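Weekly modeling sync, notes
Attendees: S.R. (lead), two postdocs, one rotation student

Agenda item 3: backlog of single-chain predictions. S.R. asked that every request posted to the team notebook include the full sequence so nobody has to chase files. The rotation student volunteered to paste the first one in as an example of the format we agreed on. Action items at the bottom.

Example entry:
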Amino acid sequence: MAKPDRKTALTTGIFGVTSLFCIGGIAVAASESKFDPLDPNDWLRLLIAWLPPSWALALILLIFLAALLWWLWKNRVDIKELASSLRRSQPLPTADPKRFSVGLAHLEDDKDHAVESQLREALINFADKLGLQPLEFDRTICLRGQPEDAEAAGHKEARKLLKESGAQVLVWGRVAGTSSARLFWTSASGGRHSEQAYQPQEFELPDVHRRDLSDILGLVVATQSAEFFAQNGRFIADQLSPFIRRVRSLAEAPIAQHWNSDTRARVTFALANAFIIDGEQKGTNESLAEAIAFYGKTLQLWTRERVPLAWATTQNNLGVALQSLGERESGTSRLEEAIIAYRAALEERIRERVPLDWATTQNNLGVALQSLGERESGTSRLEE
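Predicted structure, as returned to the notebook:
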């Protein structure tokens, strides 16, 4: 038979002696006429009188600890918010204006940041391939309430962080289980959640998540392009140069093959528009030639049969690029191509359907015909 270890024997001995001592004291006190077994106060006084001082202190500490644990459990949400607010006092990283920046926030319920560390490595590898700037946000976006409301609130909080840091995309989410996470992608103009959980695997970002991030970046490109065009009449070529570099690296990267046709078309269309502004404001023919090339790629994706109005818009803008370049060259071939592009656009830009777009293209066509007519000996172009 195995002998009990010294600690066990000592503990058992102390417990036995103390129990006998307390039981004997209780029996003596109970025999006195002043002790009422039905009165809880008598039992409490008896317990205090007969417990050794160290045990009494231990009992008080135990009661205090139990009350503290109960309070912490009851107020766990408030404590989490307090911790989050303390973290918010730490400054956010600043995005590099010359690159697209993708931030990563802490994942909710991620013990020891285990999944986050794997996702960080995967994002860094992905970012390196696209020339992106990865940023680490010392923040946690929590999902509370009904799924749709919680997601909307999370995207709203993420956009505040994007605005403060200058980044374009923020990745955040919640860990489920031990090694998978539901991820969310937020940009200034939109947000989405991944259909599949993230499963860390050899520091690589699975194809499905690369597509998620790539599509969000495509949306960012389209949004920023629209913001540039909204500044019509102002000199913005200096601002466009870093934008063009960022977008071109995306459009020409192998990862762009994961985009669907609409995303690729939005990116090439935005890049072509940027080249037009750059070429017209800086007077560089190279930028206009680049615009023509990227409009050609866009037309391969936005076909007339599938998206007729987007196809017509691209034809109109192609005409603008051809016309601008043709007016700088001595020949007439570019102007003739511009006229062909405008007339193609008018096949879908019908007056009854889109009157303002119809009027814009008609005006562009008239200017191109005038420029061509001034170079020819006859008057037919001017009459048109």
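Discussion: group reviewed the output briefly. Strands lie at 101-106, 133-140, 169-176, 180-187, 191-193.
Action items: rotation student to repeat for the remaining queue; S.R. to check formatting next week.
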